[in-house]
Amino acid sequence: FNDWAGWKENIEHVLESHKFHVIVVVFVILDVVIVTFQLLIDHDIIEVENEHKKEHIEHGLHATSIAILAMFVAELILKIVVFQAEFFKKYFEVFDGVVVIISFRIGCYPGLRDVSCRRAC
Q1: Could you read off the pLDDT of 40-86 as tens digits, one per residue?
Q2: Phi and psi of 70, rounded to 5°?
Q3: Which of 61, 82, 91, 112 has the fewest CB atoms lying closer than 10 Å?
């Protein structure tokens, strides 16, 4: 049990560190850029040479976005495990968690072509 307390304290320190917050913000910005490109390609604002190449690019962007969202889900789970009841007292954290879960679920919606994503969700 003492080992868990030490691990918990170390994980808390990492999750609350400035460096970790910067990394999270970088991934949020990267995901925004990816989703923006997805929309621009999907609405033919950015034109792609042929349909096969367009589908390949869209699939890559979608898979990358899902991977980033999966990291956010893992972060959320880790925060709930480490901070326990304290997590739910931080309303912004709870709101962020709801946004992450909804975004991940929408990204993995069964209507999408990516079968591997559907299995993961």
Answers
A1: 998 889 998 899 999 999 999 999 999 999 999 999 999 999 999 99
A2: -65, -35
A3: 91
Type of residue numbered 69: L
**What tokens does 21 get?**
């917050």
User: In Å, how far are 35, 41, 72, 74, 103 from 68, measured between CA atoms?
Assistant: 11, 20, 6, 10, 11
Please name which of 14, 120, 110 lies closest in space to residue 67, comparing C-alpha atoms: 120
Longest Cα separation, the chain: 60
70 vs 64: CA distance, rounded Å: 10
Query: Could you say which DSSP state residue 17 is in?
Result: S
> What pTM, to 2 d.p., does this model score?
0.81
Residues with Cβ within 8 Å of 45's Cβ and at least 6 positions away in sequence, in order, are 39
Do 12 and 79 contact (CB within 8 A), yes or no? Answer: no
Tokens 């739910």 correspond to what residue? 88
Q: Using 50, 70 and 90 to split pLDDT, how confident is the model at 30?
A: very high
